[in-house]
Amino acid sequence: MARREAPLIEAAVGRLHGVASPASGPRRQWLGRFGALTLQGGLLVPAALGGIGGLASLAQPGSARAADAPAGRATPSQSEGPFFPRELPLDRDSDLTRVAGQSAVARGDLTDLTGTVTDSTGRLQAGLLVEIWQVNAFGRYHHPRDNRGDRPLDPGFQGYGQATTDAAGRYRFRTIRPVPYPGRAPHIHVALSAGGTRRLTTQLYVAGAIENERDGLLNAIRDTALRNALLVPFAKPSGATDANAVLEARFDIVLAQDGRFSLSGPARRA
Ligand SMILES: [Fe+2]
């Protein structure tokens, strides 16, 4: 990355998340915390500026090919942001709406988030670790750096969860529909890893949310089709009459298979 660009990027990403850059720590390391550095034309640039995620197939590639999954373009990568858990919660399962030891269910609109992971040739990706993290229903992260005291914590919301793709490349979470917070459209952070190596870091957005139009990270993806690949409808099941029906959201993910783009650092171990 050109030296003169780094402060601008740090400031922009920090503003988007309502935090200032840290007073200490190597700049490169800190930038790495904010997400993927992608290799484009021999230059390392932040993925938030339009990189495409995914490494060449590494460990545990799926062997089956999805009969109904056409070859596709890789899902765009997005920055990790500053709120990936410093320490993973003891309860880190795929149901973010119930926390061990808590009787209350998470506040917010319950949602089943599902999807299938393939590579760009349509090959199913089994055995991948899928991680998600997001703000609670009040717009606050479970993270010590999120000190927005005007927004309550929600002890019933896990904030972070893990799932593993099955033999058909599928994953499933129970979570809540994300809400906006100042500077950001509603989003869920998503990371995929194989064999301890991060293969994609991205964010999904709520299709139709008015905040999408002004979200700097989302709109840094100039290609409309790629940007749309991150827009996910959150809707009640067809025919559902229950006002409290659990929403459904489907986010299918395509990993780059050709290895043109590389991501920052190894994944944190589960
Ligand atoms: Fe975020």
Structural class: alpha/beta
CATH class: Mainly Beta
* Range of helix content: 10-25%
CATH topology assignment = Protocatechuate 3,4-Dioxygenase, subunit A
What is the general shape? Answer: globular
Task: Tell me the radius of gyration.
Answer: 18 Å
CATH architecture name: Sandwich
* Mean pLDDT rating: 77
Major pleated sheet: 5 strands, mixed
Bound molecules: fe (ii) ion
CATH superfamily: Aromatic compound dioxygenase
Number of domains: 1
In short:
With 270 residues, the chain is an alpha/beta fold. It is built from 4 helices and 12 strands, in the order ααββββββββααββββ.
Describe the structure in your own words:
The chain is of the alpha/beta class. It has one domain (5-255): Aromatic compound dioxygenase (Protocatechuate 3,4-Dioxygenase, subunit A). Helix content is 10%, strand content 24%. The strands form 3 sheets. Strands 3, 6, 10, 11 and 12 form a 5-stranded mixed beta sheet that branches. The protein has a 5-stranded mixed beta sheet with strand order 5-4-7-8-9, with no helix packed on it. It has a two-stranded antiparallel sheet with strand order 1-2. A hairpin with a 2-residue loop joins β7 and β8 (197-206). Fe (ii) ion is lined by residues 81, 83, 184, 187, 189.
